[in-house]
Design a protein that fits this description.
By secondary structure, the chain is mainly α. It has five helices and no strands. The longest helix is centred in the middle third of the chain and has 20 residues.
Length: 89
């Protein structure tokens, strides 16, 4: 029962909105890259952030949701498929 409620909560949090805005996608790119501190690292990070953002922009919305659920929510493939109403494969 707890797992079902958890999955419902994830569904509401991630699929409850019609579309994610660009600000949220930039945040996703930033989160995937982590934080770097030196000037040269900041320049590299900015370049990587742009590349990651471009890759995210090319992805289907459902693929971004899978990435979010798997990476940030740490759901299994099976749990992610259940939340999104997809087949595990």
């Amino acid at each position: 029962m707890v797992t079902g409620q958890k999955l419902t909560d994830f569904h509401r949090a991630h699929l409850g909105t019609k579309m994610r805005d660009a600000g949220q996608e930039m945040s996703l790119a930033e989160q995937l890259l982590g934080r770097l501190t030196s000037a040269s690292q900041a320049a590299i990070r900015a370049e990587h952030k742009l590349l990651v953002q471009e890759a995210l922009n090319r992805m289907d919305a459902i693929d971004r949701e899978v990435l979010t659920l798997r990476h940030f929510e740490q759901l299994s493939n099976e749990e992610t498929a259940l939340v999104l109403g997809l087949k595990k494969s």
